[in-house]
């Protein structure tokens, strides 16, 4: 009989023609629980020996800590199959898919154990939907197999997708619940590739949502993808689901996924799939460096949130119901407790109200405490909105507001339970943030003011490993306009530009600000210089076009205002425009001061006012030796 222990030994690999011949004859796999009387058993043993498993890390987007590893099948071509899909299609056609899945799971588990840090990691395994049948009882068989290797069921995450039909929703939901009853985690894989993904999310009630590479690819320059992904992330977080972005390959994709609120990432930017387990790291320093670099300039609410979260001692998922009742009895002021698993990760909350049917029943407590007939804590756990401690307060408020009768938000740090943010505490966070923002905003335009501009420029100059573009906008011929039409219309012109600036420079990657009067500032990060130059030029052109409506018909016809200069001479002033001085801060630049930037901007402003397109630019680079 075939066993995985034998399969992992040294045996010659089969030829492709050898494997195809076995398939053509429809010979059965000699797998655990199956007879192996036919001579072709050795062929199938050799096929399974040829197959290998590669692993790809899944890391925390904020810290770079490795959360888990996805097991990916390899060597199917060497085993005589056209592709991975062809291999599983063949197994399904021969009626051995479930047994093959079990063999491959064990193969992945054995390799997973080769890592020193496996106890702190999750193992992500792909499920073929065609094997989702209760008759095979894959969850129970997998649980027994894991027990032999000493792996907790909660360490294993099964990925389901729309690659093959799920079947009737109610039937599928029953199968998913069966996996959960066996303490496994579920992830919806390749979300966004099919047309019924939302139904799968609804019925599976997964712990993780893996966003397909389609929505991640080139997302930094695709506003429609940003919109879709941000809404998907919001929905997932409202359901207490962790969001994982697949196929992250570039820094720009990483930063957008982080800004939108993804929790985990997987892709070539972190590490390519590798069969050598020695290459699997517990922490990926380059991801942490990216996150730190971003935090230098990003508005962080971490301290505000940390000061307000309540450190409610959670209940562990494996606690007995007697222990749960005792917690509520000991602290009568608490109406719910967060619930965490063995790894300290939150799974939801347990409410006192949902236990009342048992606590007030004559035999309720005895019934629920009966280990044979009674229900366990996981049967009473309710999903709760969850947010990372690095999440912006506005996003947390949005998640809270969308859930009726929510007690608050579970806060996690590096995917571990950190505390609970109640509605009252959340309002205090928002209030304190608004007060702090009001102190640093321009009172007219509500854009960031001088203090924040100085901080932004200082941080940009200190981050020599990151590209920035700084833009200074100055109105041309604003004083003659203000003298002729009055300060109210002058304020309207200032507000017009502020609105155009805020729209052209989205806050997730840019920094729109108001220096004061008719002077504005814009900062670009994670935006290449040519794109920043294009946006700035279009902004200048849009304002010049739109502001013409503020003039009377006669002045627009003449194209100028007749007025006095500073010494009283009668002159003609052209219609109002805006000039832009653009400073490029490339990667690897020399260390410059704020005064260096201010001096260069002053020179560029003079040049821009003489330029036909009212734009002048220069780069601050490392001086040549």
Automatic annotation (TrEMBL):
Query: Pfam families, from UniProt?
Result: CBS, EAL, GGDEF
**Entry keyword set:** CBS domain
Q: Where is the EAL domain?
A: 30-287
* Domain CBS stretches: 308-367
In alphabetical order, the GO MF annotations are:
cyclic-guanylate-specific phosphodiesterase activity
Q: Does the keyword Metal-binding apply?
A: no
Where is the GGDEF domain positioned along the sequence? 466-597
CDD domains assigned to the protein according to its UniProt record, in alphabetical order: EAL (cd01948), GGDEF (cd01949)
Membrane-spanning intervals of the chain: none
Region of interest: Disordered:
1-21
Q: What's the protein called, per UniProt?
A: Uncharacterized protein
What is the protein's species of origin?
Magnetospirillum gryphiswaldense (strain DSM 6361 / JCM 21280 / NBRC 15271 / MSR-1)
